[in-house]
Design goal:
Layout lengths: L1 H14 L6 E10 L2 E6 L2 E4 L3 E6 L8 E2 L19 E5 L3 E6 L9 E6 L18 H11 L6
Parallel strand pairs: 1-4, 3-8
Antiparallel strand pairs: 1-2, 4-6, 5-7, 7-8
The structure holds copper (II) ion (CU).
Main location: periplasm
Pfam families: Copper-bind
Cofactor: Cu cation
Amino acid sequence: MKTYFLVLAAFIAFAVPAFAETFEVKMMNRGEKGSMVFEPDFLHVQPGDRVKFIATNKSHNAATIDGMVPEGYPGFKSRINEEIEVGFDQQGFYGIKCSPHFGMGMVMLIKVGEVELPEQYRQIDIPERARPRMNALFDSAAGKTSP
Ligand SMILES: [Cu+2]
């Protein structure tokens, strides 16, 4: 039984990257975790997967946070109210903000592949109200709590 499970787990691990998925993230004025949120605010995807940012409510965008992207990644920034789809080919962690509501804590985190959170991400200077949400996301990404 145990051997069977391990074989099955190995099969799934190899099989998954073959099917690129597209995930949807809503940009909302109010969600389950309060006001000005990405929902969900944490995604674990595989290289090649895509994330579509949906303008559920107006006046939001999605942009990478400076210093919270893998080395060499140029970053992205959508226009306000724009619905964009971003492909994530490079493994690593991507901190995402809504530019107008960064100061109100509108952030999310995307983990691509099987990687450890770089410790320097916790040192990046972000607005005071974004800090507790980001720290919670870092902790859940590190497996300390569930998102
Ligand atoms: Cu916003």
